[in-house]
Description:
mainly beta; 6-stranded antiparallel sheet; 3 helices; 19 strands; rod-shaped
Amino acid sequence: MSNPTNANPGFPEAATQLYDDSGNQIVVARAKNVGTSAGGTVYGDIGVTVEIEPVANQEVNTKAGDIAAGSAVAGAFVDGAIATLGTEGDSAITNPASSGTLLAFTKGLLTNLALGQKTKANSLPVTLASDQGTNAAPISTSQTLGGSALSATNPEPNISNIQQFILNAASFSCSTGLVSAAASQAASFFVSNTSTKSVLIWSIRIMYSNASQITDVRSLTADDTNISGGTADIGNAINLKSGGGTIGSTAVMHHAAGVTAPGVSASSEPLDEVLNQVNATTEVLSPGMFLYIPAGTAGGVALYTGTTAAGKWTVTLRWSEF
């Protein structure tokens, strides 16, 4: 082998190299042990073809994590650039079985998780922990009556609510007053179907002072004209809250003498038979019992007492309206 034509003893790298770090330049490759001379091992030029990328494409000292060819470049994540991500205008999707973009499902998730009370149909299911135990917090439930939620216009009839009706000036009392008895005293309380108020009768009291007698109690769907033709008593009605207003229903109350119970019919059905103890007041309705007349429904009650022409007799009703 002949000696190299352009020896370079001043470049003693041990391996092929294309870049000179100290000079920051690309150099022609040189190979080791190309030949020998009296001065020792020398290096010689090797014919090398070097192609240099345009400056815009050059990258020096690449590192792990660099963006590979074909990956997203600047502007790739603008709104709508990637179809599966979607656009800001995509409508929310709340049904997991539906197809849509990531943005649409994200909007749907935020919609379902929105704060505030929801209807039962629009609420997410709640699963209690299996080890919740006896210290679980009480769950609020919605109570209904007649298919509607309990409210001031659809109350649960109980003692507390009747007391609340009284506080709200929605409870009344009406009495025949003390009547010098004649034979066969009778009284009726009736609400027509034109009433816009519901009526809850929670007390019916009767008193006769001469002797123990039986009172025939009837449930009415039509007022007894033999009684309604007698003395009108509704003017005696008082609000059980002092200063409260007058009744809002179409209730009327009458009493008359010489009236016996008619034959049983659809408009006058037996409700109870009550024995009045002498010189005592009897509560006709059993504890916890009440009579309910919904708004727009005709209904009432009549009492027929076998009095004689002696003693004192009276009937008093108490009710709430809503």
